[in-house]
Amino acid sequence: AKWVYSFGDGAAEGRAGDKNLLGGKGANLAEMCSLGLPVPPGFTVTTELCSYYYTHGQSYPPELKGQVEDALAKVGEIAGRRFGDKNKLLLVSVRSGARASMPGMMDTVLNLGLNDDTVEALAQDASDERFAWDSYRRFIQMYSDVVLGVDHEHFEEILEDQKARLGVDLDTEIKAADWKKIVGLYKAKVEEELGQPFPQDPQEQLWGAIGAVFSSWMNARAITYRRLHDIPESWGTAVNVQAMVFGNMGETSATGVAFTRNPSTGEKALYGEFLVNAQGEDVVAGIRTPQNITEEARIAAGSDQPSLQKVMPDAFNEFVRIADVLEQHYRDMQDLEFTIERGKLWMLQTRSGKRTAKAALKTAVEMASEGLITQEEAVARIDPASLDQLLHPTIDPSAERNVVAVGLPASPGAATGEIVFTSDEAEDLKKQGRKVVLVRVETSPEDIHGMHASEGILTTRGGMTSHAAVVARGMGKPCVSGAGTLRVDARAGTMSVMGQTFKKGDIITIDGSNGQVLKGAVPMLQPELSGDFAAIMEWADKIRRMKVRTNAETPADARMARSFGAEGIGLCRTEHMFFDEDRIIAVREMILSDTEEGRRKALAKLLPMQRADFLDLFEIMAGLPVTIRLLDPPLHEFLPKTEEEIAEVAAAMGVEPDKLRHRTEELHEFNPMLGHRGCRLAVSYPEIAEMQARAIFEAAVESARKTGKPIVPEVMVPLVGLVAELDYVKARIDQVAKDVIAEAYMPIDYLVGTMIELPRAALQADKVAEKAEFFSFGTNDLTQTTFGISRDDAAGFLETYRQKGIIEQDPFVSIDVDGVGELVRIAAEKGRRTRGDIKLGICGEHGGDPASIRFCEEVGLDYVSCSPFRVPIARLAAAQAAV
Ligand code: ADP
Ligand code: MG
Ligand code: MG
């Protein structure tokens, strides 16, 4: 088998497309060679050999040695040198290179092939003793560290000692004789640590380094990284062996890194850094301050260190040309590594550059305008999830950060405000026009109003799927959860951390994008929704097939969603309208009366309020579809809890508090998620559904009269399992519609449909579709009922499941395609069989998750619906799913 692929002198056995076989670095080195760019010759040992190595008890196939020898000889021929030969000394670097760049893999070893003998030859060959000994000391340190396992700190200590002794600050000031001495000390240290001298045989050095690369594939750091990034173990890594070129040959040599465009802003300008008389990672190691590549960047940075453009104009011009060639060739922003040896430029790496969300937008839009890529490609290049960062205020990157604690980045964006410890305080201060951050150990459904009133939420307990995190993301509010080092004493009104105490009213800032908690206010940057963002969105809208709606029940959310491009409401949760202060008493009155008459009396008070709610939403949506879900949660969620509240409701109803207490107990449920909720309420108390239907239809009439843009309300019956349930409730709704139409002398169009959120409904979807004019997949409940897991209780063990590899993904974050998805598929198919034009949508949180949106496209849903802040993400993800 062929295990080794050569490159050099304008030709290569591999190509950019061979990343699986040659790793990213090797494939791109080969490609650059074939493009005729100046690349030091070398060869790549394939990822397949890595697999062989692990399946054969960490050994190599017999033919490998010969292939490596041949390839090495070829490298020598091109370079006019020979490995291990003092007369024409060839030195190489050994570089690891997986398919995807992967921290945790073996670091690169440079100057391999040096020993006590060859170092003298190198000095003579280059007529530069200092250079030779500088290279040798680097080699000993790198090789000992990454191959022999001698901690690099030993060497740094020695170097620091010697610098102090010599009275110099910079490595570049150390002279040949002193490097020679330092090399002696390094070698002694290695022998002391290992009980063996530093290996002198170049062949032994080479095979040692190759083995170390393969071994590092299975080191703990690499394994962890692969697990976190879903990289299969079977991929393996490649090894690149390449002729050395030297950036440390004095003042006409240099090494550097650059991006073809600015990776933080996306601006089209070569951006990078270099160091004169340096090697390898010196630029990023922070030993000396690197210099700017271009004059323009130097001036912008206010640096007095000359640019590459100034000090090596020829090499610079060549570099500018090559950067352009590579960007045009790869049709993407490139991240480049180069070395200049005595004025001659060599390219050592190219790859697509990592960039911020903002830069990703800018480069994609500009490259499409330049004609380098198509609009479809531009849309495909943006990670939908990254848009989240752009929709919220963020901390000015140049701002000083006084970090007091770090939790989980639960919901993106940054927020500043006064600390409050209760939701009521949050609401009170908000009414006074103050900005607050709600700080709690954890949040519960009773904190919704406080969360609404806050700029951001900080909790000391709970993970990425805790109540605070989920609700905050839904509201589009920044949230840091699980900041465990904070101690919150809500009674005393204090929060303390590491000896600092914060009181209620003190200002803090949270950064929900990285989990930081900061002291005081910090300068912010406001989101920029025009320009590049708008361009990408416009292109995405041209490409996508599915509509994107929003989940919203307040006018503020509905308006925001419209501004983000929502094309209607896919889920209006009417119960959220029941919690408002002006109506909760009437709601409680309705629930607690034990007669239908009593309930109707209370419902009559609610009707005008509900009607006004819907009217608002209909006007904002101006003719777009609006799906309204009838009351869904179990009634006891609305019940008075404190004695004070009970007394208040009792007074309003004119009954004894004791009677109320008794009724409250009656309504208690052991398992509310599976209890008396959804359409079961409408079956037990049809008058509730009737009131809601009347409010909907009357609002539809009124808004049509006012705006001239009739809404077609979609009345949605939740938690249907039996078609008979839907039949019963629908009959009531239709009757109300008939009444309202007669009263108004005005026809209204409306649809009645159901949520599919119980497995039975999915399996019986053909029957259900006889009555339902639309299905909306409520995949939150469908996930709960399919798995038999309650979401509120699942956070703890689902994380354990993930860690133990039993599940890959939290099914509440990304839809479980095999199980829950199968039910969706079945229901969609059966529904269509009965009713060809049945409208299909999704309104669970999955509606804003890019992977789930891809699934929705596959199943052919008509729309997805998600929280307002996820609308742009869904628009983009739907476009990507459509191509
Ligand atoms: P990483 O994957 O960590 O970037 P590389 O294999 O790219 O590691 O090596 C790091 C640096 O080492 C390169 O950027 C380059 O400066 C230097 N280097 C690697 N190989 C050579 C070589 N053959 N000649 C000169 N410098 C090299
Ligand atoms: Mg590199
Ligand atoms: Mg539900």
UniProtKB/TrEMBL annotation:
Binding site for Mg(2+): 757, 781
Catalysed reactions listed for this entry: pyruvate + phosphate + ATP = phosphoenolpyruvate + AMP + diphosphate + H(+)
E.C. numbers: 2.7.9.1
This protein's record includes keyword Transferase: yes
Binding-site list for substrate: 573, 629, 757, 778-781
Domain called Pyruvate phosphate dikinase AMP/ATP-binding: residue spans: 20-57, 61-296, 313-370
Active site: 467 (tele-phosphohistidine intermediate), 843 (proton donor)
PROSITE patterns for this protein: PEP_ENZYMES_2 (PS00742), PEP_ENZYMES_PHOS_SITE (PS00370)
UniProt keyword Kinase present: yes
EC category name: transferase
Domain PEP-utilising enzyme C-terminal: 530-882
Source superkingdom: Bacteria
Role this protein plays: Catalyzes the reversible phosphorylation of pyruvate and phosphate.
UniProt family annotation: Belongs to the PEP-utilizing enzyme family.
Name of the protein: Pyruvate, phosphate dikinase
Organism per entry: Tianweitania populi
Lineage: Bacteria, Pseudomonadati, Pseudomonadota, Alphaproteobacteria, Hyphomicrobiales
